Amino acid sequence: MSSIKIQNIEKQVKVLNQEDLAIFREWFWKYDSKVWEQKIKKDVRTGKLEKFDREARAAYKTGKTTAHLYKWAEALSKKKVFSHLKVADVVRLVRESRSL
Q: Is the CB of residue 13 less than 8 Å from the CB of residue 24?
C-alpha cells in the first residue's frame, strides 16, 4: 500500500468522533487478530515453528525459561484462540512481545 493511501486512512481516522473511533478500533482489533491467527496457523501447518518449539523446550530444560512462564504459556495454549499453538510457540511469542 502506498504511503499516500496510508496518509489518507490516517486523516480519516483522526477525524472520527469517539464513538466511531471505538467501533473502528474494535473492528480493526478483530481484523488484525484474524490475520495474525491465520499466519500462525499457516506457520504451524508448514512446520515453521518447530525450530522454536525445540529451542523453547531446550531453554526450559536448561533453566533459561522460568517454570512460571512455561506453565502460564501451557495454560494459554489450551485456550480456544491459542489451541492450535504448542506451549513453546506461546513462550516464544511472549518473549518476542516483551522485547518490543
A: yes
Q: What is the pLDDT of residues 80-93, one digit of tens each?
A: 556 666 666 666 66
What is d(CA 84, CA 81) in angstroms, rounded to the nearest whole number?
Answer: 8
DSSP secondary structure, the chain, as one string:
--HHHHHHHHHHHHT--HHHHHHHHHHHHHHHHHHHHHHHHHHHHTTTTHHHHHHHHHHHHTTSS-HHHHHHHHHHHTSGGGTTS-HHHHHHHHHHHHT-
State the pLDDT at residue 68.
Answer: 58
